Amino acid sequence: MDLESLLPTLLGLAWLLPLASFAVILFAGPRLGNHGKGAAGVATAAIVGSFVLSLFAFVSWVAQHPVRAVAHEDHGGAHAAADPSHGSGDHATTSHATAAGHEAGHDTGHGDAVHAGSPVHYSGDWYTLYEGGRLKLSIGWYIDALTVLMFVMITFIATCIHVYASGYMHDELHDITDHEVHLADGSHLHRPGRFHRFFQALSLFCFSMLGIVIAGNLAMVFIFWELVGICSWFLIGFYYERKNASNAANKAFIVNRIGDFGMLIGLMALWGALGTLHFADSTGPDGHARPGLFSLVRPPVAGHAQWVPDGMVKFAAEEKVGAVLRSHADDPRAGVEQVEAKVEDWRDEGYGRWLLLVAGLGIFCGCIGKSAQFPLFVWLPDAMEGPTPVSALVHSATMVAAGVYLVGRFYPVLTPDALLVIAYVGAITLFIAATIALVANDIKRVLAYSTVSQLGYMMLALGVGGWLAGLFHLVTHAFFKSLLFLCSGSVIHACHTNDMRKMGGLAKVMPWTSGTMLVGCLAIIGAGVPFLDIGLSGYYSKDSILAQALLFARENPSHSILFYAVAGGAMLTAFYMFRLWFMTFAGHPRDHHVHDHAHESPPVMVYPLVALSILAVVAGWTLPGGLGIANMIEQARPAGTGGTELGGLLFSAFTVPAEHASHAHDIHVTASLTAFATAATGVLLAALMYVWGVIPPATVAAAVKPLSTFLANRWYFDEIYRFLFVLPVLGISQLVSGTDKGIIDRFIEGLAWGAKQVAGFDAWLDRTLIDGLVNGTASATYSVGLELKKLQTGQLRQYVMFIALGTVAIFVLAGLLFRSSFAG
Amino acid sequence: MMNVSVAASILPPGLPLPVGFGMIPLFAANPFTEPVGVIHYLIVGAVLFTAGIACMTLKRNALGILMGIELVLNGANINFVAFSSSYLRAEGAPTLGLDGQVVALFVILLAAAEAAVALAITLNFYNNHATVDVDRADDLKG
Questions:
Q1: A478 contacts: CB under 8 Å, gap ≥ 6
Q2: CA A773 to CA A779: how far, in whole Å?
Q3: How does the average pLDDT of chain B come out, rounded?
Q4: What residues of chain A lie within 8 A of the CB of B53, using their CB?
Q5: How many folded domains does chain A comprise?
Q6: In angstroms, rounded to a whole number, what is the distance separating the alpha carbons of residues A433 and A450?
Q7: Is the ipTM of this complex over 0.95?
Q8: Given A788, A792, A800, which is nearest B141 (Cβ)?
Q9: Is residue B102 included in any domain, yes or no?
Q10: Of A260, A541, B33, B110, which alpha carbon lies 20 to 30 A from A315's?
């Protein structure tokens, strides 16, 4: 079985297994084992199966397409200037062959061609939902190295979290008294456990998330995008009786809808102008090749350099197209040819550039919502109301990373200006979130803001041209952030509180948790040795982000604030992460009640921690020979990206530098040293404040009281949004409901009153006149009948007498009346 | 109603047709002085009929009433037979001249059937009321 058919089968099965588990739990839920305990087994078995299949796909991928280091030094500067004509002939055939499904001998000589040619990918459709005209909606696959890697990453983390959750959620196996819900009579809510429901939603989530990753077109991405959204809503609102939880779930859902509105605009721009939402090229039913989005925007004939596709040019130059067609009204065929001939000129004149920008930014809007970027990041911290395994899986490692993933997947279509917008959004997000995390006291909220901040990092990396850096950080971050969340869950499980001010000194009681969390903290701050170039996973990914940002800042001095944001963010990250660790595990217990009660978590929760911490350490490493996550992602680099790009539609002219240029020695060293210095400063500062007490935190807080209040109130974002959006909406809805109640309802009620009056009159008429008539007839008939009844005596002889007399009488009468007839 | 030509055919030829109310046309001539003709049969039938009616009206015994019915039916039979007399037949009419007799036979048959049913009813009535007095039977009272 070749890879062409093997991969869709393996990954398709891996994708559908959680759906099967969802269906089983949905229908058999509470009957699975004792109080639905078997649901955990079903869901875990499904996700383990997915993991094994993904791993198998991974191994077969690596066997067919050996992952090698990309030799930057050999190419040097010349390589950076992605020559548009490079390999155009060769790779045009390559991409076509790949799309058509002939992969034989493809990977030979692939190594150094990655940057210019189409990456190795397999695509196709399983099922066509709808096909009509130019539109085709289908459930299909687009599998490249990134897809395979994401599958392994997601299923691995999901497996860890399923195992962990089967321990963490065991309270739900029995009836629960929820002490956070106060009923009207002052008692607490008592409800049955919902163990199986948790795993049901978790399975659905895994299915949806894998669906986003495997999706072969944007419409399918959008479907599963919404599905993960609803799963997130289920899971945040798992304790829906708690007001906070249900509000947080609604907030997350509504805020995401705002982003998705932008995404819909992007989808419409693409579909309206290009008529396809498929990523890869495909073959239509008529046997003609149908170019996908990637080759439309970066066509092989142009050496995969980005241009505005014909469809968008014509769409934008609508008036000119109309004029040409009208001038050839007598010969439409010539008119169409004339239009085709002129497209090139119009493209040069700049038609359609805005449309392409809008399409890119529209899709990015969806990513802003899902990946909790400024200004829509407010939902993610609230989402921590959900159970901690959910925070670890959905709200840190996978779903919120889907936005970053989509930007990475959609990267070829994004124009340099869109990228710069993305970079700035990322920078603002990472800075705001990091500052809020400095003062948060809820252990999960610190991690939530840290997640927002790290997502900002990824976006920024993608925005400044670091496609690999951003996606690399996405993968490494998934490992250590899910680890951190699971550790925090373990702490919460032990302490029954989220408040770090009540913790402290837990390291002795919870050695495994504190140890693995330390690994997570070191990974997230990017701990490593700069000159030996060895460190934890975060070290590699963060360094490459920093290097790319530094390169960008050097190329475009006016945007050097992006680099400062990254560097400053790194310091803040180090500070708040170690503040968290020190406050929780180091020093003396602050609350003895909590401390005495604390205990190490059961093995079923500790094993996933250990597994994830190992990954958090090694995920960034590259094995001798080049096998490593970064090189594997590099295999999937979209055709034509990674070169220098010029932008200047929204901003004054700027350059998006080529990514390999950031591997240049001086940049690399400067970035490493900056990263090390900022991280070390952050850790040192945290230690000074929270371990050695040299600088008491209270003093600092008092010294900058306005600032700390400002941060503690999360920059007043919720208040601002409340004032700007929520209150006006409430006001308008009150106005509308007032209109409805005061005017429309009154009018309707008036109509109803009138109808009632008329009906009353009708009823009166009916009862008196018509009923009287009918009843009168009836009673008259009845009384006549009563009278006539008396004649019916039942006396036989009387009857005979009557008959005889009657006959005689008739004859007599006839004789009298018809005398003339006898007279003849 | 009987029309003139029928009345003329019933009466012996040569008799003037009776005129005016008060004179029963059939008894215009004295039957006792006439030779026996159709009219005499009709008179016997009428007597039987009237006797039957009187019997039905006056008898309280159900069996008596049944007898009255037989009288009525036989009175009618006599009329049928009388009217099929060859005197009353047109010249050369294509008929066997047995119409009245056939109908009379039918009536006898009917009377037998009717008597069977009526006796059954009477027997039942007796079983229920231990009498055959029809005045005691007013179950049909409305």
A1: A153, A154, A157, A396, A397, A398, A401
A2: 10
A3: 80
A4: 800, 804
A5: 2
A6: 7
A7: no
A8: A792
A9: yes
A10: A260
